[in-house]
UniProtKB/TrEMBL annotation:
Keywords: Sugar transport, Transport. PANTHER family: ABC TRANSPORTER SUBSTRATE-BINDING PROTEIN YESO-RELATED, ARABINOSE-BINDING PROTEIN-RELATED. The keyword Ligase does not apply. This is Multiple sugar transport system substrate-binding protein. The keyword Transport applies. It comes from the Bacteria.
């Protein structure tokens, strides 16, 4: 499944705000713990499709074989329901011992006391071998609350077969601009069968930060404020509208449908798009869905100021209320540092942050996996500005972007009006 910076849906936004306020109110600890036979039982929760669930269960069985006194109960949930379920469990004092987070959620949960400071389990969790950027990505106000599952970066996923069928050449991604992207996407739509588009979507919330960084701004500042101007936000919405109006991207009705679609059901997954702005770790699932070897291209507009950055695909975190912190730490350590786990997980949750693990699994990677690793290696050589995890409340901003963007695409408001609305609502979200 495509890994995105997870937006909170309408219920989820309310759920997180309400239920996390209960974390410090004396709720009970979770139910996992020593069984009568002396074994330790852990609960580990994640989101994803069946392929991820199967691979994760294999890794958990390998962990149990290496740690005979520990049993791990895996809890897999579809992406659309995962964060509501997790927030409810946290509020009830029944959070899993270990769970995955993404986007700004580490800051949200850490800021409300729901996560264990991993310094307290450093004897069982060794992060020294991880890339420095990966360790930093899991830190909130200098404390380590999350462990990177692997590196990820925004990319343009390209389908060479769609390009070839339309008679359009792949771009030089070292030099292309956003205008080039629009022109290429328009040409593909015009020269393809009806229902196939040059780009699967207009710009998304995930790309707003990159769009701002290319202009010397950023979505958030180090001190937790909004770091972009009204002019940049208006340009962002205006560009998305332009892509749709010139038919480079699908109409608004299809774009709305695409937001909640699984990897296989996206236009790119169905082979009906030449390009798609997505996270790099989506290339394997999209390639499997299309039956085609896809390419990863750098974002347009990266010259002269790069907007790209390396981001943790997801994070492993430990509940602050777990009664099995040491065992939980051993599980995370196994998932990120042991070849037995890496050999089945491969790049499903991003390119491993441990260089030794990357080397160990190199021969096992599919062509798509190698494309992903090569892309991350290339991005890692770029000198890009630092990036900052969003402050408490920032998980609501993705939902604001989606909602306001929808109004722009349906032409209920202008890009200029959208920028004012987005800034007002986003500021209220992170201030409240």
């Amino acid at each position: 499944m495509v890994t995105r910076t997870p937006p909170l849906r309408a219920f989820g936004a309310i759920a997180l705000a309400l239920v996390l306020s209960l974390v410090g109110a004396g709720c009970g600890r979770n139910s996992a713990g020593p069984a009568e036979d002396g074994r330790t039982t852990l609960r580990f929760a994640w989101w994803g499709n069946e392929k991820r669930a199967e691979a994760t269960q294999q890794a958990l069985r390998a962990f149990e074989a290496a740690h005979p006194g520990i049993t791990v109960i895996g809890e897999s949930t579809e992406f659309s329901a995962y964060f509501d379920k997790l927030a409810t469990g946290v509020a009830a004092g029944d959070a899993p011992d270990v769970f995955t987070l993404g986007g700004a959620y580490p800051a949200e949960y850490a800021g409300r006391g729901a996560l264990l400071d991993l310094a307290s389990v450093s004897g069982s969790l060794d992060l020294d071998a991880l890339d420095a950027s990966a360790r930093q990505n899991g830190q909130v106000r200098g404390a380590q609350y999350g462990v990177s599952t692997g590196a990820n970066a925004l990319a343009i996923v390209a389908n060479p077969k769609v390009f070839a069928a339309a008679g359009v050449e792949l771009p030089d991604d070292d030099t292309w601009t956003w205008d080039d992207y629009a022109a290429l996407a328009t040409a593909i739509t015009e020269k393809s069968p009806k229902g196939t588009y040059g780009t699967a979507t207009p710009l998304t919330h995930d790309s707003l930060d990159a769009y701002a960084r290319q202009r010397g701004e950023s979505l958030y500042t180090e001190d937790g404020k909004l770091g972009l101007t009204e002019q940049t936000v208006a340009a962002f919405f205006d560009y998305s509208l332009r892509l749709m109006k010139q038919q480079a991207a699908p109409p608004a009705t299809i774009t709305v449908e695409e937001e909640g679609a699984s990897t296989e059901q996206t236009l790119m997954g169905r082979g009906q798009a030449g390009m798609m702005l997505a996270w790099s770790n989506s290339v394997s699932a999209l390639g499997t869905a299309t039956g085609t070897e896809l390419k990863l291209l750098k974002l347009p507009g990266e010259t002269p100021t790069p907007g790209i950055w390396l981001q943790s695909s997801q994070y492993y975190a430990i509940s602050a209320k777990t009664e099995q912190a040491d065992a939980a730490a051993k599980l995370i350590n196994f998932l990120v540092n042991d070849e037995r786990a890496a050999s089945v997980l491969l790049t499903d949750r991003g390119v491993p942050a441990n260089p030794e693990i990357r080397t160990a699994i190199a021969d096992q990677l599919s062509p798509a996996g190698k494309v992903e690793v090569d892309y991350i290696d290339a991005i890692g050589k770029i000198e890009f500005a630092p990036t900052f995890i969003g402050p408490v409340g920032s998980t609501k901003v993705a939902d604001i972007t989606s909602r306001v963007s929808t109004d722009v695409l349906f032409e209920r408001i202008t890009p200029a009006e959208a920028a004012k609305q987005w800034l007002t609502e986003s500021q209220q979200a992170i201030a409240g």
